[in-house]
Design goal:
binds flavin-adenine dinucleotide; FAD/NAD(P)-binding domain; Methane Monooxygenase Hydroxylase, Chain G, domain 1; 8-stranded mixed beta sheet; membrane; oxidoreductase; flavin adenine dinucleotide binding; succinate dehydrogenase (quinone) activity
C-alpha cells in the first residue's frame, strides 16, 4: 500500500494539543473551559502518560510545615540550575507555584493531609530555607503517587469541560506554511493505520521527555521525544540538549525509579563500608543535595572501589530505620517496587541503587507564555506563529543545567496554564484558519512511503538499540571529551542506518512495527542533538560533567570546572546541517534582584 494525498482525511480545530500528560491536560483544560474547540492527541490513554509515574511531589512554598516563601524557592532553583536557568522564567514559576497547587487542590486532587487539614509537604533534594541554610518541606505529596493523583484529577476536569481526546493517535509532523507559521499536524490513527491532517490556528506540543534514547532509564517506553523530532525536522532548534539528569536512585539492574521522597522521608545512601558517604560531599544537605551532585558522588564511590555487591557496581539505599508504618503510609509504591523489582523488603533491608537517566533539561525553546521562539535576524527570541510547547519537551528554561525534584510537575502546571491563557487571548484575535500549504503532508508521506517501499533493511529496534548503546557509553554521568567526540561520529553513522530501516509487516491495523519505526526518526534527532551539543560544551555545568574540565589547580575556589566567562549561554542545535548556535542566559528576573553566579556547594 502507498500513502497518497487522496487518502488523507482533514479535520479543523481551534487548537491541537499533542500530548495528554500533565502539561497537555493542564493547557487543554484552560482552553476547553474558555469554550475553544480543542483536540488532544495521545499515543496512549491519557492517564497512562508518563506523568502518572511521578512519585515524590510537586514543589510550592506553601510553608505548611516549615517556614518558607517563594524567594527561597527562586534561589534554590537558580542554584540548582547551575546558573543556566533563565531568571525571569524561574521567578514566574516560583511565584505562581502556590496558586497552581491550591487550584489543583480545588479541582479535587487527593493530597496527603496534616492533622490541621493543610497539604502535607516533605523535604526534597536542593530545596532549602533561608538560602541554603537547611532543608525545607516544600514537596506537596499524595503518598508516593503524586503524578498519578494529579493526572487523574486533570483528566476528570477535562472530561467535565468536554475536551476532545484522540486516543492512540500518533502525531507525525508539523505543518508550516511558506511564512513559517504552524497551521496543523499530520497524524496516524493507530487502530486503522490511516493518515490524517489536523488543521489548527494553534498547535501545542506537550509530548514529554525522551529518556528512551538511553539504555537504562526511569522513563516509560513511549518517551521517544516525538515533539522534539517534529520540531527539529521542521527547522526549529533544540535547546540545551547536553543536559540530562541522572536520578540517583534507580533500582540497580531494573532502572525503575525509587523517588527522592525516600530520602525526603529520611532514607540514606551507604557505601560498601556502611558509611553515609554524602556527609563528606555535601556537609549541609547530605543525602538531600541536588541530583547531579548526589549522582556524581555515588559514581565516585563506585569508581574508588566502595561500591556494593559482587561487582561493586551499586550503592545501597537504607529505609528500614523509618519504620514499617511510615513506609507503608508515605511510600507504599516504593515498598511494592522493592519487592517486585529487587526482591527486597525495604522495611527490613537496604535496596541496591544506581544513577539512572531520568529527565531532559533541554527541549524546544519557549518564552514564559509557552510560545516557541527561534533566532531570527538579530533577535534571539522571535516567536513562531501558531506554535507552543510546554512540559518536559519544552525548554523555557527553568531547570537550566540541572532540575530540582518536584519542579517538573510544577513546570507542567504553571506553564500549561500560562500557555492556555495566552492561546485563548491569541485565538480571539485570529478569526480564520490560515490555509494549508499544498505540500502540507509531503514530509510525512515521504517518511511513510519510505517504510512501505523498504522490505529489506534493519529492524527498527536494532537501530534504536544502537542509539541507546552509543548514548549510554558516550554521554554518561561522567563524560570525557575524547569519548564524546567519538560519540558524535558514531551517532552520525547510526543516522544513516535510521534512513535504511525496513518494515516487513505492512498491515494497517494496529501495526506497532510501523509506529516503532516512526519513533526511531525522533530518537535519532534527540540523540544527535545531545551528543553534538555535549561535545561542544567545553566546561562542567550541572549535569554536564566532563572529566577534562575539572577545577583549575591554581584556583581552589573556582566552581568545579564551570566557565562562566565563556559558557554561561544556551546551546541551540539545528538538525539541518547538524549545526550549533548559542544565545545568552537571561540573568534578569521580572521584579526582584538577580542572583549572581557563585560556587555551588551544599
Ligand atoms: C518515574 C518518574 C517519576 C517522576 N517523579 C516526579 C516527581 O515526583 N516530581 C516531579 O516534579 N517530576 C517527576 N518526574 C518528572 C515528571 O513526571 C515529567 O517530567 C512530567 O510528568 C512530564 O509531563 P509532560 O506533560 O511533559 O509529558 P508526559 O506526561 O510524558 O506525557 C506525554 C504525552 O505525549 C503523548 N505523546 C508523545 N508523543 C506523541 C505523539 N507523537 N503523538 C501523540 N501523542 C504523543 C503521550 O501519549 C503522552 O500523553 C518523574 C518522572 C518519572 C519518569
Amino acid at each position: 500500500m502507498t500513502y497518497t494525498k487522496e487518502n488523507i482525511t482533514k479535520r479543523k480545530f481551534d487548537v491541537v494539543i499533542v500530548g495528554a500528560g500533565g502539561s497537555g491536560m493542564r493547557a487543554s483544560l484552560q482552553l476547553a473551559r474558555a469554550g475553544l474547540n480543542v483536540a488532544v492527541l495521545s499515543k496512549v490513554f491519557p492517564t497512562r502518560s508518563h506523568t502518572v509515574a511521578a512519585q515524590g511531589g510537586v514543589g510550592a512554598s506553601l510553608g505548611n510545615m516549615s517556614e518558607d516563601n517563594w524567594h527561597y524557592h527562586f534561589y534554590d532553583t537558580i542554584k540548582g540550575s547551575d546558573w543556566l536557568g533563565d531568571q525571569d522564567a524561574i521567578e514566574f514559576m516560583c511565584r505562581e507555584a502556590p496558586k497552581v497547587v491550591y487550584e489543583l487542590e480545588h479541582f479535587g486532587m487527593p493530597f496527603d493531609r496534616n492533622p490541621d487539614g493543610t497539604i502535607y509537604q516533605r523535604p526534597f533534594g536542593g530545596h532549602t530555607a533561608n538560602y541554603g541554610e537547611k532543608p525545607v518541606q516544600r514537596a506537596c505529596a499524595a503518598a508516593d503517587r503524586t503524578g498519578h493523583a494529579m493526572l487523574h484529577t486533570l483528566y476528570q476536569k477535562n472530561v467535565e469541560a468536554r475536551t476532545q481526546f484522540f486516543v492512540e493517535w500518533m502525531a507525525l509532523d508539523l505543518i508550516r506554511d511558506a511564512e513559517g507559521d504552524v497551521v496543523g499536524v499530520t497524524a496516524l490513527e493507530m487502530e486503522t493505520g490511516d493518515l490524517h491532517i489536523l488543521q489548527a490556528k494553534t498547535v501545542l506540543l506537550a509530548t514529554g521527555g525522551a529518556g528512551r534514547i538511553f539504555q537504562a532509564s526511569t522513563n516509560a517506553f513511549i518517551n521517544t521525544g516525538d515533539g522534539l523530532g517534529m520540531a527539529a525536522r521542521s527547522g526549529i532548534p533544540l535547546q540545551d540538549m547536553e543536559f540530562w539528569q541522572f536520578h540517583p536512585t534507580g533500582v540497580a539492574g531494573a532502572g525503575v525509579l525509587l523517588t527522592e521522597g525516600c530520602r525526603g522521608e529520611g532514607a540514606i545512601l551507604l557505601n560498601s563500608n556502611g558509611e553515609r558517604f554524602m556527609e563528606r560531599y555535601a556537609p549541609t544537605l547530605k543525602d538531600l543535595a541536588p541530583r547531579d551532585f548526589v549522582s556524581r558522588s555515588m559514581d565516585q564511590e563506585i569508581k574508588e572501589g566502595r561500591g556494593c555487591g559482587p561487582n561493586k557496581d551499586y550503592v545501597l539505599l537504607k529505609l528500614d530505620h523509618l519504620g514499617a508504618e511510615t513506609i507503608h503510609k508515605r511510600l507504599p509504591s516504593v515498598y511494592e517496587i522493592g519487592v517486585n523489582f529487587a526482591n527486597v523488603d525495604i522495611t527490613k533491608e537496604p535496596i541496591p541503587v544506581v544513577p539512572t537517566i531520568h529527565y531532559q533539561m533541554g527541549g524546544i525553546p519557549t518564552n514564559i507564555n509557552g510560545q516557541v521562539v527561534i533566532q531570527q535576524g538579530d533577535q534571539n527570541s522571535a516567536v513562531v506563529n501558531g506554535l507552543y510547547a510546554v512540559g518536559e519537551c519544552s525548554c523555557v528554561s527553568v531547570h537550566g543545567a540541572n532540575r530540582l525534584g518536584t519542579n517538573s510537575l510544577l513546570d507542567l502546571l504553571v506553564f500549561g496554564r500560562a500557555a492556555g491563557n495566552h492561546i485563548v487571548e491569541f485565538n480571539d484575535k485570529l478569526k480564520e484558519h490560515k490555509p494549508l500549504p499544498a505540500d502540507a503532508a509531503d514530509r510525512t508521506l515521504e517518511r511513510l512511503n519510505r517504510l512501505e517501499a523498504a522490505t529489506d533493511g534493519e529492524y527498527a529496534q536494532d537501530v534504536a538499540g544502537e542509539i541507546r548503546a552509543v548514548m549510554q557509553q558516550h554521554a554518561a554521568v561522567f563524560r570525557k571529551q575524547a569519548s564524546m567526540d567519538e560519540g558524535v561520529v558514531k551517532i552520525a553513522a547510526v543516522r544513516e542506518r535510521v534512513n535504511a530501516i525496513g518494515l516487513k509487516d505492512k498491515s494497517k491495523v494496529f501495526n506497532t512495527a510501523r509506529i516503532e519505526a516512526l519513533e526511531v526518526d525522533n530518537l535519532i534527532e534527540v540523540a544527535q542533538a545531545t551528543m553534538v551539543s555535549a561535545a561542544a560544551r567545553k566546561e562542567c555545568r550541572g549535569a554536564h560533567t566532563v572529566e577534562d574540565y575539572e577545577r583549575p589547580a591554581d584556583d581552589p575556589v573556582a566552581p568545579l570546572g564551570r566557565d562562566d566567562a565563556n559558557w554561561m549561554k544556551h546551546t541551540l542545535w539545528y538538525s539541518q546541517d547538524n549545526r550549533l548556535s548559542y544565545k545568552p542566559v537571561n540573568l534578569k528576573p521580572l521584579t526582584v534582584d538577580s542572583v549572581p553566579p557563585k560556587v555551588r556547594t551544599f
